[in-house]
């Protein structure tokens, strides 16, 4: 006897799989309770670990003092938005990870990134492109900011890059 209907096959739920990949990528876990425990120091440390970059190397890549990065990872420092932008660029974070990391601060700092200024446009360009283009570094971002008579993210420039 032949059946005239087809047996329902299990089709993977691509939307939930995509959500799980997103959660793992951004939060490091799919467990909602663990996601709620995420703090800025935990996020910075996790993203540094994923990039396999320690405090010494991150300090060289950003121009941020090693002690400040250590305090950021311990949660004992006051966070500066410019430094967090430099960390995002140096770690070459995906834009979604950058938004998450910077979003952890919004209740502490003003939202200077979305201001319509030359400085914010330059920073946004480097943040948006750093994941895709290795030539977009903190030193070059600072050089471009200085060339446009804007305040740099850190003291690191292409001239001082190798001297630390």
Automatic annotation (TrEMBL):
Signal peptide region: none
CDD domains reported for this sequence: HTH_XRE
InterPro entries: Cro/C1-type_HTH (IPR001387), Lambda_DNA-bd_dom_sf (IPR010982)
Alphabetized UniProt keyword annotations: DNA-binding
Alphabetical list of Pfam families matching this protein: HTH_26 (PF13443)
Lineage, top ranks: Bacteria, Bacillati, Bacillota, Clostridia, Eubacteriales
Gene Ontology MF annotations: DNA binding
Stretches assigned to the HTH cro/C1-type domain: 43-98
Annotated organism of origin: Ruminococcus albus
SMART domains registered for this protein in UniProt: HTH_XRE (SM00530)
Name of the protein described by the UniProt record: Cro/C1-type HTH DNA-binding domain-containing protein
